[in-house]
Design a protein that fits this description.
This protein is α/β, with parallel strands linked by helices and 229 residues long. It has helices at residues 17-24, 65-79, 89-97, 183-193, 199-204, 209-212, 215-227; strands spanning 3-8, 28-33, 48-51, 84-87, 102-104, 115-123, 135-140, 142-144, 150-156, 162-167, 172-175. The chain is built from 7 helices and 11 strands. The chain has a 9-stranded mixed sheet, sandwiched between helices. It has a two-stranded antiparallel ribbon with strand order 5-8.
């Protein structure tokens, strides 16, 4: 039985569709609440890691000891060869631990200083079958460079912002968007975490409920791609 460690960074950012995927495969799931100072397990105590998102940044590690501890732990897990799948903040943390830069997005003529709501992306040839999921759910202000030795999985259709990466010869993979969220989870996050500046574009995504119906299938497909042996 695969022992899966899921690292959660905020009470409302739950594993969502990831649990459905893990349970269907008979995995033993352990959810760690990083913000609550859960003691992160030794790398030998599990077989794979999934890192969730959260309203934080790699740059917050200096002010948040639990985040600094997680980064140190994650670097050890990367060095130990543990398979890791990461989402949004998780992907930024993974990219950072793999030596890539994580920075704030800057507004340009092509895009705003944040990606909020449904954003169209272009997937790489390996994930061409996911083209029907081109609008993916976003909520981030930071972006990552593609780590050395990894290849890009997707980019924003407008602005060419990195949306995913995977190491060529290992199961280290990150995506910037949120395939794990249901409409109800997303609405709860808006109520708790949206600001006056972000509320309108985030709420606009709720006017397209049909797109949320595809999220579970997208989540399953991405996890299967990561987990493929």
């Amino acid at each position: 039985m695969t022992r899966l460690c899921i690292v959660q960074h905020h009470p409302l950012e739950t594993p969502g569709h990831i649990l459905t995927w893990a349970q269907a495969r008979g995995m033993q799931v352990r959810v760690q609440h990083a913000w609550a100072l859960d003691v992160l397990p030794n790398s030998g105590d599990f077989d794979a890691i999934i890192l969730l998102g959260g309203p934080f940044s790699v740059a917050d590690a200096g002010a948040l000891p639990w985040l600094a501890n997680e980064i140190a732990w994650l670097k050890c897990c990367v060095d130990a060869g543990v398979p890791i799948f990461a989402i949004c903040l998780g992907a930024q943390l993974l990219a950072h631990c793999m030596g890539a830069k994580v920075t704030r997005m800057a507004a340009t003529e092509l895009h705003e200083a944040a990606e909020l709501g449904w954003i169209k992306v272009n997937f790489c040839a390996e994930l061409a079958a996911l083209g029907r999921f081109r609008p993916v759910l976003q909520w981030h202000e930071d972006t990552f460079e593609i780590p050395s030795g990894a290849h890009a999985l997707a980019h924003s259709a407008v602005g060419h912002i990195n949306q995913g990466f995977k190491l060529a010869n290992r199961a280290l993979m990150g995506v910037q968007f949120h395939p794990e969220w249901s409409a109800s989870v997303y609405a709860s996050l808006i109520e708790c975490l949206a600001t006056p500046e972000t509320s309108a574009p985030l709420r606009a995504a709720l006017s397209q409920p049909g797109l949320f119906d595809t999220q579970e299938t997208l989540c399953m497909a991405l996890l299967d791609f990561w987990d493929a042996k």
